[in-house]
Design a protein that fits this description.
The chain has 17 helices and 7 strands. By secondary structure, it is mainly alpha-helical. It folds into 2 domains: 104 residues, Flavocytochrome B2, Chain A, domain 1 (Roll); 327 residues, no CATH class. Strand 2 and strand 3 form a beta hairpin. Helix 6 packs antiparallel against helix 7, helix 7 packs across helix 12 and helix 10 packs parallel to helix 17. Belongs to the fatty acid desaturase type 1 family. Keywords: Fatty acid biosynthesis, Fatty acid metabolism, Lipid biosynthesis, Lipid metabolism, Membrane, Oxidoreductase, Transmembrane, Transmembrane helix. This is acyl-CoA (8-3)-desaturase.
């Protein structure tokens, strides 16, 4: 044990005992599922039991077991004072004075420069949201919903009006998804309860752990359909998995994955999360969307017709929109197991940007600035374009590639990446 430290039982915080002094070697030895330590600002914490109750999920915090989690902690916890009350009971001690602040291969110069950049960004007020932006965004969503209903009520329920109405509603839902994304990632107002209520009223669904997983720079989150790493396909080849033709995934994925994501998987998990966690107020607000939808469309289509035609097709289009936009910055990247790099480096390796334009900003909900979104996950999206030049300059200083593509290139690379990984799987399967 470290100098001055006390013997502790794995999984139990060292509350009430003398705080110890530890080396990186000691911290790194506590990286199993039932024994997890991590370091934040040179302080050593035992998060074994807390990981199960962590609001962001146990996978996110557990990923940093045995490592320095300072940069990730700062990125996802804007109110450090509030979080301290949860950290205090978990405190074991601190790193020895002779130990460096960074562990493993992290570049101290990059860590310090990014810390300085974040401080500058905070002084510039770029973490503060502009209420007008969000109210205008909300307004155009409501107008789209009204336009869809007016179209069908005036032109009838034929296939063409229904198709156009579904496209309009899907557009409104997709844009509402970006609004939901904002409230899921950040608090743009000091008291955001009313704003959360407005947001849920508009789109009728909540943020769940799936979105949190999408935004987290941990390569182990990808499923077989997304993986672009040869060793994974060799493992599947050895096991001789025959029930999924992965070498054709670039052809069938978008006929199966996106249609099932929001209409089936997403809706089920949303309701399951709210009910099992007893989020009754959230459930009540979410139900207002469905009540409003059927109130307006059931008299026109009937209950079955409004559910099977307009609603289902709207969700189908929305799901495709969501999948293509969120993955165009991720799947094409050459993601591998994290090599304990600094925060800036690992984010630039795992994502890329799509060129800025008025359409790209609107179409992607500003997620075309995915690099800045990963680096500053609690920053309001309307400020991404302001911080982007500063991030680019920092990358140039340290020789870190800052990748940017056209929208069409980003979308096409999804298909190319799926085909490449499928071919790798087939090769490994045939030549095991």
């Amino acid at each position: 044990m470290g100098r001055g430290s006390q013997q502790t039982v794995p999984g139990e915080p060292d509350s009430g005992k003398a705080k110890g002094v530890y080396t990186w070697e000691e911290v790194q030895s506590h990286n199993s599922r039932n024994d997890q330590w991590l370091v934040i600002d040179r302080k050593v914490y035992n998060i074994t039991q807390w990981a199960k109750r962590h609001p962001g999920g146990f996978r996110v915090i557990g990923h940093y077991a045995g490592e320095d989690a300072t940069e990730a902690f700062t990125a996802f916890h804007p109110d450090s004072k509030f979080v301290q009350k949860f950290l205090k009971p978990l405190l074991l001690g601190e790193l020895a004075a002779t130990e460096p602040s960074q562990d493993q291969d992290k570049n101290a110069a990059i860590v310090q420069d990014f810390k300085t950049l974040r401080a500058q960004v905070e002084k510039q007020g770029l973490f503060q949201g502009q209420p007008l932006f969000f109210f205008l965004h909300l307004g155009h969503i409501v107008l789209l919903e009204a336009l869809g209903w007016m179209l069908v009520s005036m032109c009838g329920t034929g296939w063409i009006p229904t198709l156009l109405c579904s496209v309009i509603l899907a557009t409104a839902q997709a844009q509402a998804g970006w609004l939901q994304h904002d409230f899921g990632h950040l608090s743009v107002f000091k008291k955001s309860t009313w704003n959360h209520a407005v947001h849920k009223f508009v789109i009728g669904h909540l943020k769940i752990d799936f979105l949190r997983e999408l935004r987290t720079p941990i390569s182990t989150r990808w499923t077989p359909l997304y993986l672009d790493r040869l060793y994974q396909w060799r493992q599947y080849g050895i096991k001789k998995i025959k029930h999924m033709p992965y070498n054709h995934q670039h052809q069938y994925f978008f006929l199966l994955g996106p249609p099932l994501l929001i209409p089936v998987f997403y809706n089920f998990n949303i309701m399951h999360t709210m009910i099992t966690r007893r989020y009754w107020l959230d459930l009540a607000w979410a139900m207002t969307y469905y009540l409003r939808y059927f109130y307006y469309y059931a008299p026109l289509y009937g209950v079955f017709g409004s559910l099977s035609c307009c609603y289902s097709f709207c969700r189908f289009l929305e799901s495709h929109w969501f999948v293509w936009v969120t993955q165009m910055n991720h799947i094409p990247m050459d993601i591998d197991h994290e090599k304990h790099k600094d925060w800036l480096t690992i984010q630039l390796q795992s994502t890329c940007n799509i060129e800025q334009s008025f359409f790209n900003d609107w179409f992607s909900g500003h997620l075309n600035f995915q690099i800045e979104h990963h680096l500053f996950p609690t920053m309001p999206r309307h400020n991404y374009h302001l911080v982007a030049p500063q991030v680019r300059a920092l990358c140039e200083k340290h020789g870190i590639p800052y990748q940017e593509k056209t929208l069409w290139r980003g979308l096409a690379d999804i298909v190319t990446s799926l085909k490449t990984s499928g071919d790798l799987w087939l090769d490994a399967y045939l030549h095991k």
